[in-house]
């Protein structure tokens, strides 16, 4: 009597737990992802007694610090480029609000020059940001 050996080797990748692995990776990346908010330049804002919050999608932030550095949405820019950048953003969204964040130790000459650049760009919705009296 002759015995026939039937040994079959399968060439396939086990995918039974693939969904579990993908789900765990998705949770891992969701937990470890850091969403960066606009930080701008380190400035000390003046105090205010009242104010209102604005939608983030409608805002463009201009930061000016005491060292005469200007930042628009976390990118350092020259004073001469403020007009072109704001005009381009206004062309995309006419309801844009310019949030002007100025350090209380900034030279007023720089503030005046930035305001002139905003006037040339026809930015009529300008919000001057400050801190509330309770430090918020």
Architecture overview:
With 136 residues, this protein is α/β, with parallel strands linked by helices. It has a domain of 86 residues: 2-Layer Sandwich (Nucleotidyltransferase, domain 5). 29% of the residues lie in helices and 19% in strands. It has three helices and seven strands. The strands form two sheets. The protein has a five-stranded mixed sheet with strand order 4-3-2-5-6, with helices on one face. Strand 2 and strand 3 form a beta hairpin. Helix 2 crosses helix 3. The protein is rod-shaped. The N and C termini lie far apart (92 Å). The C terminus is likely disordered.
User: What is the first-to-last residue Cα distance?
Assistant: 92 Å
The counted number of beta strands is 7
Helix content: 25-40%
Poorly predicted segments: 132-136
- Placed side by side, the strands forming the largest sheet appear as 4-3-2-5-6
Largest sheet: 5 strands, mixed
The 3D shape can be described as rod-shaped
CATH T-level topology of the domain at 47-132? Nucleotidyltransferase, domain 5
**Based on helices, strands and strand pairing, what is the structural class?**
alpha/beta
Give the arrangement of secondary structure elements.
Blueprint (H helix, E strand, L loop, with lengths): L17 H15 L14 E2 L10 E6 L5 E3 L2 E3 L4 H11 L4 E6 L5 H13 L5 E4 L1 E2 L4
Parallel strand pairs: 1-7, 2-5, 5-6
Antiparallel strand pairs: 2-3, 3-4
Helix pairs in contact: 2-3
